[in-house]
Write a structure and sequence with these properties.
Blueprint: E1 8-16, H1 19-30, H2 33-36, H3 50-55, E2 73-76, H4 83-95, E3 111-118, H5 125-140, E4 146-151, E5 158-164, H6 180-194, H7 212-219, H8 224-237, H9 242-251, E6 255-258, E7 263-267, E8 270-273, H10 283-312, H11 336-351, H12 358-363, H13 373-389, H14 395-445, H15 450-453, H16 459-469, H17 474-484, E9 489-491, H18 500-511, E10 522-524, H19 558-575, H20 582-626, H21 629-633, H22 642-654, H23 658-669, H24 676-681, H25 687-699, H26 711-724, H27 726-751
Antiparallel strand pairs: 1-3, 2-4, 3-5, 4-5, 6-7, 7-8, 9-10
Helix pairs in contact: 1-4, 5-6, 5-17, 8-9, 11-13, 11-22, 13-20, 14-19, 14-20, 17-18, 23-27
Length: 752
Amino acid sequence: MPTHANGTVYGKYLKIKNGPQGVKNCSNYINDPDKIMAPLQEPDREVPHMEPALRYIQNGPKTKNPTTGRPLVSGHNCSPDTAVQEFALIERLYHSHKTEKLAPGQTPNQAFHIILSYKGTDTSPDFIHEMGREFARRLCGDEFQSVIATHLNTGNFHNHILVNAYALDGRHKFKDSWHVYHHFRDIANEISLEYGLPVFVNEAWKNPYRSWKEVLSTEEGQSWKQDITTHLEQAVAVSSSYEEVLTSMEQMGYEIQKNPRSITFLKDGIRVRDSRLGSRFTREGICSSLERQVQNHKRQKIVNEISRMRKENRQNKIYPRIFIPLYNQYGKRRSFLIRLLLLLRESVRQAMDEAYDPSLEKAAPDNQFFMRAEKKLTFLEEAIATADRYHITSPEVLDLKLRELHARHTPCLNNISYLEDYLEHAAQLEKLLQTYRELLPDIHANNLSPEDIVFIPDSSHIQENRARLNPTRPKTRSDLFKALHNSGYSLTRKFRTLTEQEAQQILHAIRKHRTNNLPDGLILGRIRQGVSPNTNVSNHVFSPKTKRPSIDLKNYDEAVKEKILAFKAAADTLASYGLTDTESMDILLKELSDKTEELDTLKADSQVLRTEIKTLFKLKQDINRFQKAVFVYGPLYSGNAANLKQSVEQLKNDTSRYDWLAAMKNRLENLPEVSPSDLASMEIPSPEEYRFLHDLAALYPDLGSVNTVDPIQVHSLIAKLQSDGFFDREMKKEWKKEQLSLQKKRGGNAGR
């Protein structure tokens, strides 16, 4: 059965500060042909030392994957061959009109070196490289340059991404903030989930930062921070509450300074806040440690009690083996998982509380190992019903189902977050619109017109505000930037002035190669220098260029004056978003209503998916828990449980691929349809098709000859599997094998 151990296992980023030379060295390192080539099989292969590798110039024939012939080096907004020179040009452009404010002795960040490693080598190198390119697209967009190289020289395929710290416009730099590593991890996790790889990101980011001086002093046994953390650990070990921990620290000579949100420790001239020691030593972390400590004490007490009771009440009875037939009384075939759960159910019935003590269940009422047999049987019946309801036939199928649900849930959560942000900002406009309409009759009653009051900004300001309200998603921006490259089309507007819908319309027009009726902001050909393209935001009722007559507020009483000012404040803000007439305002209200309904639908779908994930994850935990002898026979049983283990192993040995093939056939039938036009515009396969082919190739390696990053090849293979009845044939073969195995067993039993 296929396993899915591959996933993001490690991720970090490094800052490169020593100018173009550092960028050059890093570029040479990540482009090292001996790393981006697939590992050779010969055991005597020599690996060059680092120094000659850094001098090694990129060589075209040597930097290709031997299996596909495709290079595993790419550039985002730059060419990998000239990346060092391009990075340097952008840096000079930045410094030509700006200076970096640095403290004495500091050097600026020139680039960022990001490493994303994926466990194992069973995933296609081309697809790992494509994931690295997708990471660069989402991180850099159309603002920054990056070079992506996939290394295959270790047991884990991994991507190196070198990002230029200076933006393409030469006006700003990549923001290096405290949470930048979290941002990298979020993008990597999102991509892994979308394309069906489990997420196992290292948790090193939780550890507190240590300077090099602290590292050296720790090795020499002189770190003051290490002393404080050691004393805190000792205080926690002998305390039962947070106040006792502070008291113990005071007894060790520390002065405690209590702040509203933190605690500061002072000793021998050293002052340090608890948050600087790491999350484990904050108030929340210490309280959590104390709680775990109490739970461990309770658990150890129960373990000691069980050990004592087992010595007094030895249950040496050996229970006979149980056999669950492949077919039920009606001739219906049972799946492996149903047979396993039935075997465990009959084993629990066989034992039926012979080694049960109510005091244990009273001490740990939520522990399934200590419950009466009736409760255990209830849990098993629920597991059988869950497996039957969701068509889970084996643990492998359960893993496939969970992975599919996670992959569907991630974009759903992203869309929910996107809509919530939009509705939160749009709700402010809705309130202003309500104020506008409430005060409009008073404006007319005083012989005034909105044309006399409202100020309308220029079109670019309106476009930016609209885009700020409904911004283009990073994925859409990167796709649009790539589609424009060498397409013959040009944008007449900046990316920051495009809404998500406008960017999607432009992207659709480019992919369809339309030549007329182009959306606003797109033209065919290049913009001539000095010619300003004609772009209309909307047809305003009145022109902003007309000089408005001045309004003397002295002619109005205070109540009217307040209404005029309130109306102007609301109308000016609405006008800055292009909302100047009844039609545009009604369109906004209709859009808010539609988005609200869409958000409610997405939340309902998310709740369904979350419930399914929670239910199936519980089933997975229960399956592992139910197979333990302590669950079946009780914690006081000290007899031999070899027969139970042999019965379970016999079930596993008799299991064929039939259940897994049936699940894959169901997935094949439920794959979403892809139209020829959409297929022609795809750069990578759809996530559903790729996940399906990846799982199938794990059991049928011969299918791996298909280029898994070519959407046409992947889709053609899937269409062939559907038309040829591949799974029906394979399931029939497995069924015949099962029948032959049953006949042999019956013959052997008859001979005895």
